[in-house]
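Incident log entry.

Two folding requests arrived from the same account within the same minute. Monitoring flagged them as a possible duplicate submission, but the sequences differ. Recording both here for audit purposes.

Request one:
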Amino acid sequence: MPHTPTAARRASPSARRTPHLFTGLVLLAALLLGGCASLPDNVQRTPSAVFTEPAQTALGQLIEKRRPAGAAGRSAFALLDSADLAFAARVALVDAAQKTIDIQYYAIHADATTDQLFDHLRAAARRGVRIRVLIDDFNQTGPNAQVLKIAFEKNIEVRLFNPLPGGRSSLVLRILGSLDDVPRIQRRMHNKVFMADSAFGITGGRNIGETYFGQGKKSNFIDTDLLAAGPVALDLAKTFDGYWNNELSYPVESLMSKADLDAAKQPKPTAAAEATPAPAKAPEPKPDPLPENVDLATLPLVWANGTVLADKASKIAADADDVDDAGETVVDGLLQLIAQARKDLLIVSPYFVPGERMMAEFAALRARGVRLRVLTNSLASNDAPLAHVGYARYREALLKQGIELYEMRSEQSGDLLSLGSAGKSGGSVGGQGSRASLHAKIVVMDGRLLVVGSMNLDLRSKLQNSEVAVVVRSRPLSQAATKLIETTLADGSYRVELDGGRLVWRAPGQPPLTTEPDAGLGLKFMLMLIGPLAPDEML
């Protein structure tokens, strides 16, 4: 069963006070701006449950057929270590599903990559597969709202988790319409789960969209997924229902109609624009379709024992700070595992804001002689620069503890074959001028235990977002992940060191740098301005 610890979870006093102070300020702003929008009442949510008999399906039978002698009770795992493989594996699961497909994501973007995947979902629905899609509502605005149209097709249900009220033309307007409910809207469902017949599943850092599969023209996320099959896959599937049937999960139809989505597709032209038609533009070139050639019958698998770590949906409740019902979090569980390290700990976290407890855990590990390496984003590669603010305030202290720090280089040259890239740093469209941004969330402990999931090692993942992860006890899989990560440490990152009390960034074939590499003056100024002020738990 999924691991949902029951130990008490409570934020530090400063972590609890700051959101309430922030709420008071935004409530004052709300009074000045006018009334706030509201969500519909008496929403009809037909409960449904995860499919629990995977052995009745071809996928379930496939994994049992592939089970080697001596692997009874174990699950099968594979690192999806390229963007192409990560996409093709999802397509393969959809095409092979016979009963159910359950998909849970923080964000699904409207683009050619999503269209390609949705074509396969529609085909599965037409042959009678029940499809449930659960998306956190924060990013489904503007063009991305169009992905919700799939909710109006037979055998496909789409629900939005923890929605913001109001129209979908502007995220800013939706936030302004929710200023009386800030404690709730700042908590987001960050889980990433992709299940087929409860027999196979995928989790990791990726959302759905072109930048997560190496197809972005300007930037791409460097990510890694874990495919799981067997008992752990069923446990992973069971985490879905607690969110799907939660009162914060709203059917798309309760929030907007297909006509609303059609009307939102294009902004209404102004009178001046109607009088003076804009010159015709050449259509944007579409990326080539992503490859779909993966054979689940021959995909190399590692058989091992595994466990699911999953936050409860109640963690997102507006009063989660006051009602101690969310239990221990995924990050809490991960810290308990980390504390058991004996020799080596390798952490990949795009947003890395340790906080006091984590710093104390790291100090205890170093006192026992544990080697500790961390890969995170540089200021230039970070798609959320404010997160870098929180990391930067701990950087010198981490280095003084003897922790080895590496920061992802935003400009990657040549082939980047590590941590789930498409091979070229810009994918098939972006080319080598594309910006790379680390997005994988991985922990490897003592070369024998691997964790892949949606969580970052920061206070937002611990206190604000819901997360999910899979823990695998396997030396072969841990060593494969270590090899991927170490390739990035050597060829795609800056090693950050203290030299005479000053921070220095080093990379192969480059002179040492003494300031945030590849970052413009504006970003550096923001770091200096906001760094001393922003609370860790809000970054």
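Request two (distinct sequence, not a duplicate):
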Amino acid sequence: MSKQKKHRRLRWRFPVREISQSLSVFQYSGKALGLVWTTNHRLTVVLAILTVVAGLLPAVVAYVGKLIVDSVVLATQSGITSDRLTAFGYVGLEAIAVILLAGTQKGQTVCQSLLRVLLGQRINVLILEKALTLDLPHFEDSEFYDKMNQARRGASTRPLSLVTRTLGLGRDILSLVTYGGLLLQFSVWAVIVLALAAIPPFIAETRFAGEAFRLFHRRTPETRQQYYLETLIAREDYAKEVQLYQLGPLMLQRYHRTFEQIYQEDRNLTIRKGFWSYLLGLLSTLTFYAAYAWIVVETIANRISLGEMTMYLMVFRQGQSTFSSALTAIGGMYEDNLYLSNLYEFLEQEVPQPEGRATRGLIPNDGIRFEKVTFTYPGMSQPALRDISLHLKPGEKLALVGKNGSGKTTLIKLLTRLYTPDTGRILLDGLDLQEWDIKILRRRIGVIFQNFVQYQFTVGENVGVGDVDHLEDSVRWEVASEKGMALPFIESMPQGFHTQLGRWFRGGQELSGGQWQKIALSRAFMRSGADILVLDEPTAAMDAEAEMQIFEHFRTITNNQMVVLISHRFSTVRMADNIVVMTAGEIVEQGTHQELLEKGGKYARLFSIQAAGYQ
């Protein structure tokens, strides 16, 4: 017996819990309204005015309808011409009200459509601006991508939806006040029944809105995987390998499998939502027809007029629809708030901003120093770099040698301040990198990574992105391209520096791997004021002869610059002033080419193996 009572108490608390959840519907309404307001003041004001007018007009139409019926009955009974004219006047008045109502509704639709486009753009810009403030570790974290995808999905529509529903709720409340005033003339119980009949569908709507959000939140990785498979199948830069390895059917099968998993969950939720919404909606329908019968009985008993009966039926039906719409709007606002919590969680995510303000070092021309630097990637147990110490003087060339995974690229990421050391410090001209103004620091560095970006821009812009302040400077393009030895083939292209590269856009031309690397090398030279050049496998796609020519030329034009070079070709490495051999994140040897050969250690062994391959 006690279990049954407990079960009844739980069942009774269920709607209370659902309704209490809806009390949070206004959590983000202020922020969403502010966002819409700042997007376009005029459209927001017009939308608000139209919403208020749309809330008043339905009651006016209902009341004028009552006047029409009563005036028609009176004109029929009296036969007086003035009574007939009065009836026609009411008809004209109702026509005007209906025309105004249709106009306000259409105006609302137009305003919402325009705001949706503007707001979508604004929110995407906010998300992209936030992305620009993030550090490299965020972009190497899968959970970060899930958060970004959650923020972007629906973010362009949810704020406007929340504002529209908030305004719609105000419109519905205004309509309900006018409907209630009319129904109170009939019976206070009619108003109470009207309110109670709309609660069951609201409970179903709110419950399943929360469940749909939790489902969306949980399966973000699967949705992202599906998008990734679409990219692999449909993008031109993956097409060669997908076709040659015959990966298409396999990827399409995985795409289907992921879709089926998502669809099964969606289908189950949709079916349950449809079933309970229909079942609870029947209560509202039965309530309406009970009230319908009640009003008819009162009319037959001559306690209300035919016009009043028409008005009450119209008011009750529209009031029931409006009440249900208001509660559904609250449920929708609850759902919008759930999705907007993702957006604002992303936008309000605290990202420590660089605090350094220094524009010059304490010891000019001291160069770069690593002092006992150790670094571990987030989520990894073993350090990628361990107790690294070295000194690169102005004008010196440093080569990093070692197997893949030995920490060479990680060292470069620390030098360019994409990461911060766990322990130890990196100094530039006697000052810790963390104390430098990040913009000033990065202006001093020219970089080409092994996996450099092949921008689908013109040739000139591909070179110019190396110094965004001089992106359109054609003179600098030419100077940088000459240093990167890309100028000869650029001049032979149809439109020279204005030739579109890549295949994404009309008229684009593709380059060979070696040509792309020369473009990237030229990009590094765009920063004429950079005294640090970082080259991570800059000639990996070139043949040995082309590589030799580039580095002989390169050494000549970088006399006064510090250079950090990563290369697996010892014919290139031997030109460096200092060679550092790395293994498992540690420096095991360093010295000149000749010194390391004389030591007969790891470098000498690797050099002899590679040299034997050319004999």
